């Protein structure tokens, strides 16, 4: 076989008599050769793609088989869960632990299970299983909760018994009671009012109750009780002093005269058969006097003026043993035999500006203890001694 190149060269050489036909034949041969050369690689590419497709088909088949196995496993798992759920539901129905609604849902699911596709069966079988597991957990939790209160109650009772036992140990018996802040009342009187006893458990002296007992006597407006473990009690009190007293004379209703002691606000502190060391207000009729409440009197205007005179005297370092008002006239006892007389307004002015206190002090320095001090309208004070 001759080389194509040489044939082409020979054929391309023009010849006489048939040059055109020869040139045309050569051109057609050249086009066919070029076409064959260009189609060769395409055919190889198509063959390689077909080979790859044939190789991929087994892989796809293998993947499809794996997915089918996984789906089958999932279906089997769901069926097992549904079976377990049904068994649990049947057991709890036998014990009365499953509601009627849950049983109906389970029955409906079993009836429609055969008519539904496999995927829907799996999903619906998984849902009751999950609900049943949750319900079972809740039931177990409730049972545990039912058991816990008994244990808690037992622990609480045990703790209370232990505390009570400690409270009755001899080391906590009271051996010392201290009292402070008292003036008119002695320590023994305050202790007696408190109810605290030596030799008894310190825990019996409950601060609130001790203070309440002491405050039943209205002279005490503040009480503070402290423990000093193991066996000492401290009681601090504040006494309010009586401001004035009013006599209730003997009568058909009152067999024995009494004295009503009030504070600066007019509240009754005490009703006593004994006279206290506070100013006595005369010419006042008592209607009602109960400790802890305001006094009720008949002569309200006279009572208010007398209380005002006592308050002004105390603010200016003076003290009257008795105050007696008759209309606008006032008589006050400075000592047993020394008196001051004048009008209500003039007396208040002499107290406020210190004139009366100066006169009384000078007489006292001269050892003059009897007589009468008269207060005029202009504030002038005159003294008349007793003969």
Q: What does it look like?
A:
The protein has 387 residues and is of the alpha/beta class. The chain folds into four domains: 101-167; 173-239, Roll (Ubiquitin-like (UB roll)), CATH 3.10.20; 243-295; 299-387, Rossmann fold, CATH 3.40.50.11690. The protein has helices at residues 4-12, 19-94, 100-113, 118-167, 187-194, 207-214, 300-315, 344-352, 355-365; strands spanning 176-180, 220-228, 232-239, 244-248, 258-262, 268-272, 279-281, 286-288, 296-297, 322-326, 329-333, 338-343, 371-375, 381-384. The strands form three sheets. A nine-stranded mixed β-sheet has the order 6-5-4-7-10-11-12-13-14, covered by helices on one side. A three-stranded mixed β-sheet has the order 1-3-2, covered by helices on one side. A hairpin with a 7-residue loop joins strand 8 and strand 9 (296-297). Helix 2 (19-94) packs across helix 4 and helix 7 (300-315) runs parallel beside helix 8. The protein is elongated. 16% of the residues are buried.
Mean pLDDT across all amino acids: 77
What is the gyration radius calculated from CA atoms?
60 Å
Classify the secondary structure makeup into a structural class. Answer: alpha/beta
How many H/I helices? 9
| Helical residue percent band | 40-55%
Task: Specify the oligomeric state.
Answer: single chain
Q: Which fold name corresponds to the CATH topology of the largest domain? A: Rossmann fold
CATH architecture of the largest domain: 3-Layer(aba) Sandwich
Unreliable spans are: 1-23, 41-48, 55-63
CATH C-level class of the largest domain:
Alpha Beta
Strand arrangement, major sheet: 6-5-4-7-10-11-12-13-14
Q: Element order, helices and strands?
A: HHHHEHHEEEEEEEEHEEEHHEE
Quote the beta fraction: 15-25%
The major beta sheet can be summarized as: 9 strands, mixed
Shape assignment: elongated
The end-to-end distance, rounded to whole angstroms, is 188 Å
CATH superfamily of the largest domain: Cell division protein FtsQ/DivIB
Query: Please, how many domains?
Result: 4
Compute the number of strand runs. Answer: 14
């Amino acid at each position: 076989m001759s080389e194509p190149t040489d044939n082409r060269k020979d054929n391309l050489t023009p010849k006489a008599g048939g040059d055109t036909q020869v040139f045309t034949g050569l051109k057609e041969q050249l086009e066919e050769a070029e076409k064959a050369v260009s189609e060769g690689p395409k055919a190889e590419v198509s063959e390689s793609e077909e080979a790859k497709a044939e190789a991929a088909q087994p892989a796809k088949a293998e993947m499809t088989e794996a997915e089918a196995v996984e789906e089958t496993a999932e279906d089997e798992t769901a069926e097992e869960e549904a079976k377990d759920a049904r068994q649990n539901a049947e057991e709890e129905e036998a014990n009365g632990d499953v509601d009627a609604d849950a049983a109906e849902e389970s029955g409906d699911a079993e009836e429609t299970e055969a008519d539904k596709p496999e995927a829907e069966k799996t999903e619906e079988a998984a849902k009751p299983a999950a609900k049943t597991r949750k319900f079972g957990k809740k039931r177990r939790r409730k049972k545990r909760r039912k058991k816990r209160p008994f244990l808690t109650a037992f622990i609480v009772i045990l703790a209370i018994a232990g505390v009570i036992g400690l409270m009755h140990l001899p080391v906590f018996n009271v051996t010392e009671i201290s009292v402070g802040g008292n003036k008119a009342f002695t320590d023994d009187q305050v202790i007696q009012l408190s109810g605290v006893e030596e030799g008894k458990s310190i825990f019996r002296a409950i601060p609130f109750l001790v203070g309440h007992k002491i405050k039943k006597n209205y002279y005490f407006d503040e009480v503070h009780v402290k423990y000093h473990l193991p066996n000492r009690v401290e009681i601090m009190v504040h006494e309010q002093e009586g401001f004035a007293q009013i006599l209730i004379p003997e009568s058909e209703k009152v067999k024995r005269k009494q004295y009503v002691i009030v504070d600066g606000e007019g509240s009754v502190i005490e009703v006593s058969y004994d006279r206290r060391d506070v100013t006595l207000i005369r010419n006042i009729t008592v209607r009602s006097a109960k400790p802890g409440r305001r006094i009720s009197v008949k002569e309200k205007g006279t009572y208010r003026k007398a209380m005002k005179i006592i308050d002004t005297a105390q603010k200016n370092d003076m003290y009257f043993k008795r105050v007696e008002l008759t209309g606008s006239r006032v008589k006050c006892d400075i000592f047993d035999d020394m008196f001051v007389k004048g009008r209500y307004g003039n007396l208040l002015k002499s107290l406020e500006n210190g004139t009366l206190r100066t006169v009384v002090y000078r007489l006292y320095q001269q050892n003059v203890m009897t007589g009468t001090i008269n207060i005029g309208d202009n504030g002038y004070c005159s003294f008349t001694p007793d003969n």
